[in-house]
Amino acid sequence: MLRHQLTLAFRSFMKFKKIFAINLFGLAIGLTTVILVMMWVKDELNISRNHEKIDRIYAVMTNHDNSGGIVTIGITPGEMAEAMKVELPQVELSAGTSPFIEGVNFENLDTKLTGDGLFVDQDYFNIFDVDFIEGNKAQIMTGINSVALSETMATKLFGSPAAALGKSLKWQAFDFANEVEVTGVYRDFGAMEVDQADYFLSFSYFKQMLGEGVHWGNFNASTYLLLRPETDIPSFNIQIADFIKNKDEGSNVSAFVQPFGDTYLYGTYEDGKVIGGRISYVKLFSAIAIFILIIACINFMNLTTARSMSRLKEIGVKKSMGASRGGLFGQFMVESLLLTFFALVLAIIATFILQPFFNQVTSKTLSMSFQPELILILLGIWLLTSFLAGIYPAVYLSKFKPVQVMKSNIKGSFGELLARKGLVVFQFAISLLLIIGISVIGKQMSFIQNQNLGYNQSQLLQINASGVNPNQLDSFLAELRKSPGVENASSLSHPLVGLNSSTIGLTWEGKNPDEQVKFENVSVNIGLIETMGFEVADGRAFSADFGDEESKIILNEAAVRAIGFDDPVGKIVNLWGDDKEVIAVVKDFNFESLKETVKPAFLKYDPGFAQKIMVRIGAQNQQETLASIDALFIKQTAQAMDYSFMDADYQTLYASEQRVSKLAKYFGLMAIFLSCLGLFGLAAFTAEKRKKEIGVRKVMGATTFSILTLVSKDFVQLILVSIIIAVPLAWYFANNWLQTYAYQTSLSWWIFAGSGLILMMIAVLTVGFQAFKAASDNPVNSLKSE
Amino acid sequence: MYATEEVETTALDSIQIEIKKGEFVAIMGPSGCGKSTLLNILGLLDNPDDGEYHFLDHEVAKFSERQRSSLRKGNIGFVFQSFNLIDELTVFENVELPLLYLKVPTEERKQKVEEVLTRMNIMHRRNHFPQQLSGGQQQRVAIARAIVAKPSVILADEPTGNLDSTNGEEVMRLLEELNNEGTTIVMVTHSPHDANYAHRIINLFDGKVVTENIREQFHV
Predict the structure, then answer these.
(1) β-sheet bridge partners, residue A581
(2) For residues A724-744, average pLDDT
(3) B144 and B177 fall within a common domain
(4) Which chain B residues touch A319 with a CB distance below 8 Å?
(5) Banded pLDDT at A512 (limits 50, 70, 90)
(6) Which of A286-295, A472-481, A680-689 has the lowest mean pLDDT?
(7) Which Gene3D superfamilies does this one have (chain B) (predicted)?
(8) Do A689 and A309 contact (CB within 8 A), yes or no?
């Protein structure tokens, strides 16, 4: 019987080739999307989770209750890890680490390399899985002068991991340098970790570097805990909430733990609580993929039921010969299973072809390998899709009574017509939602890019200053300024983009002592304001023409507002106990994503702590300018410069938005394409069914245009209904999304009107093509066919 | 009563007929007199709204679709005016269909189909599709399909309606032959010539039996 059903399914596919092709490719496109998104989602869900003890690993988070609201960060005092282990019985192991530090210089004889990594406790390796190939894992960080290197670093520096073990190595970062011994080499981290460390240095040494900075009021380290299996997390959180306040009276910081595995996907906090993060993209794309698959399934349902008229005879004959409803249901399900199987095979091939491209868009290294798990998932997708697509046609077709069928007097019932129309409306509403979504994201992105950031981003070079001897910095900057093509150069303490070095240590006369105001702290050199192109609203920039610039300070407008000065220039503020005179106010400049409003910030003169050299270059001969800067840099530091352009750096703040917008564009196009494919099939079918009517009308004198209108009218009505449904929904979602930005573009009416119009045009063209074909046919042909 | 979308018409009204095993009955009457409705009820494709129908010792008037379907299998063969062969299936596969629903084993199925195709003189066309055959050949395939499961009753709805006289004559002879072998045949027809093959002719008019002429005495 199965063989009979398969044969019949095959021949029926071949007989209705056009509909078969639409169904096959539609489902294949839908399935390809689902497979790609599934791979991406699986990858996202596993990031930071590939540790054996992941269920018990927690990151300590701190809530900072400032005047501007609660700020949540994964940064703790340096002594936190040790104290928690000693005082809390639930803590089995704890590890303190430095923040992730980029651009540390390593030197072995003549080989120089920079690497990114962090300073950690020995217990770090007992909490997290780090795969050591050289060295004794139990004693990697027991000495203060130890370093563990990744396989790649070790090979580059020493030739091989084995050769690296026990060797000594020099490193340097900021004002610090040390000679250390390689005590371990570990396999490189895969893409499944957020921060891929090239090196691990000793956390004890890091605390030495901080010196007096290690106390309970300073936040400069991270703390990870391995909790005992039976630990009740809510009560543990209650217990540790005041841990820091108990150590440091007057502190406004409370602590809590977050599962380490969640830190990647749930990294957005509001009022000290997790409210989401990247997980919303995971949800969004899962939803889009499912919608695209549903659109493809709807095509299958619509075309299969619409085509049913031509199969009524088969159904009737079979029923009269004793076929049961269940048997016929089975037959149509077999057809759906078979078609979906072909589509799945196509989808798997397409996935292989599209993989490199998809990886590029998503910045991932996904690859499909046929492990039992994947095969099981694919099997599940196959069955589910077949069921989704096949159930309605199978129920619909198998329910006909043989008498009705044989008399072939079945007219589409009202309910069935409504169902088919409803499905079309649903498809197009989804498509329109996507079109509007893409337009709004695009408009917001261009709005951000054209926003005045308070400084000129173009032709502004940011060079990593590590390697430049702090004593020679000023002469080096002077040399740079003389270099051809360079307009200005200076240095500052932190990369400006995503600036994150704040203090509550700024006070002034009349400040409410209970209120804590956080300021961004930017340490700059002479000429930085001019190089960046900050606009000075009042006063003067730091200058070599005046002495004692260390006792001066410059505020941004947000800081002036926060303090409440009417005429700030000349006023005195106090920073960490030292009085400073305000010499200028600069207009607000954006150093964060435009999701944030500009925060209070001050600029102080402190050239000693230079992390970045900023260079403004001319628009002409950029390559030559860069080459001559590089030559100067090599002369100074004996290594090539590590640089980036500010405008590109600023873009990385929106990398995830841009990825989302790009992906949404592809998915949106796919949804529209699939919906139109279905409409194309349906219109072709309608035109075919009305062939005789169209023939008669033409004989009676109907024009081609009137026939076009006749055939298109029903579909245009459906699209109109979709628009009415989709527009309010789209407005609601777009508005919610824009709320996440401090600076928003407007939701102009023309986005909605334009998107609706585009959809309508695409649909009319699709239907019109079929209608025109029907209308321009010689009526004799259609009338003869009866 | 038969319901169309517009109006309800009474297709059959107070009909009382008995058809004996082995009989050959022709039903005649003008279009719309209820012939096809009667045939559908006799063939268990439809239920009467009222009244009784005894088929092979079952009172089937109130049978559900499922019950009718299982009783239909193997007991009733249909021959239609428009042949109603399935276009996507070959001659062999079309004829095989009833046996598939009866779950006859493959080997036996093959043997039975070949036997009946040979008898219908269409064996050489076994791998052709219906569209490749002439009308007469198609109707022979349809008859082959109707009799392959050896049903006790064959219901024929104007079996010669779409055929020329030579082919029509041949079909009628086949039906006569089957009847001689013991199969009960009920045939709806417009053709007095075809009706002459039957033992008994029932004339319907406006859903009522108007006359019954017994052409030759039928003996069980």
Answers:
(1) A552, A572
(2) 86
(3) no
(4) 45, 69
(5) confident
(6) A680-689
(7) P-loop containing nucleotide triphosphate hydrolases
(8) yes
**How many CB atoms neighbour CB B187 within 10 A?**
27
| Nearest alpha-carbon partner for A716 in A662, A761, A673 | A761
- Give the total number of structural domains in chain B: 2
Residues A389, A392, A397, A399: what is their CA dihedral angle, to the nearest 10 degrees? 150
Specify whether the CB–CB gap between A377 and A38 falls below 8 A. yes
Is B80 domain-assigned?
A: no
Are residue B142 and residue B166 in the same domain, yes or no? no
Q: How far apart are CA A692 and CA B47, in angstroms?
A: 35
Mapped onto helix, strand or coil, the DSSP state of residue B46 is coil
For A363, other C-beta atoms within 10 Å of its C-beta total: 10
Return the pLDDT at A499. 56
* B160 and B69 in a common domain: yes
Could A322 and B46 be called an inter-chain contact, meaning their C-beta atoms sit closer than 8 Å?
A: no
- What is the torsional sign of CA A179, A183, A187, A189? negative
State the Rg of chain B over Cα.
17
The enclosing domain of B70 has a CATH number of: 3.40.50.300
pLDDT of residue A763: 82
The contact set of A with B (CB < 8 A) is 1, 4, 7-8, 11-12, 15, 313-314, 316-325, 327, 401-403, 406-407, 409, 411
Closest CB from A320, A324, A402 relative to B66: A324
Indicate whether B82 belongs to any domain. Answer: no
The answer to whether residues B63 and B168 belong to one domain is yes
Contact A241, A254 (CB under 8 A): yes
Give the CA angle between residues A307, A308, A310 to the nearest 5°: 80
Encoded tokens for A711: 């055939």
For residues A447, A453, A454, A459, the Cα torsion angle rounded to the nearest 10 degrees is -110
**Confidence band for A247, pLDDT divided at 50, 70 and 90:** confident
Closest to A240 measured CA to CA, from A383, A129, A127, A81: A81
Whether the per-residue pLDDT at A676 is higher than 50: the answer is: yes
Q: Which of B205, B170, B208 is nearest to B16 (CA)?
A: B208
The answer to whether the beta carbons of residues A181 and A140 sit under 8 Å apart is no
Binned at pLDDT 50, 70 and 90, residue A780 comes out as: low
Strand blocks (E) in A243-336: 253-259, 268-270, 273-276
- Shared-domain flag, residues B66 and B2: yes
Say how far apart CA B13 and CA B48 lie, in whole Å: 10
Beta strands A578-586; A552-556: pairing state: parallel
Enumerate residues 6+ apart whose C-beta is below 8 A from A732: none
For A692-719, the pLDDT digits (tens) are 777 777 777 777 777 788 778 888 888 8
Which residue of A3, A10, A11, A320 to mutate against B (max B Cβ within 10 Å)? Answer: A320
Residue-level pLDDT at A259: 93
Q: How high does pLDDT run on average in chain A?
A: 83
Pick B98's closest partner by Cβ from A12, A313, A321.
Answer: A321
Which of B9, B79, B101 is most worth mutating to test chain A (most A CB atoms within 10 A of its CB)?
Answer: B101
| pLDDT reading at A298 higher than 90 | no
Write down the ipTM of this complex. 0.75
pLDDT of residue A398 exceeding 90, the answer is no
CA distances from A308 to A317, A332, A522 (A): 14, 11, 72
- Coil, strand or helix at A600: coil
Task: Let me know: does B116 contact B151? Beta carbons within 8 Å.
Answer: no
- Going by pLDDT thresholds of 50, 70 and 90, the confidence category of residue A319 is confident
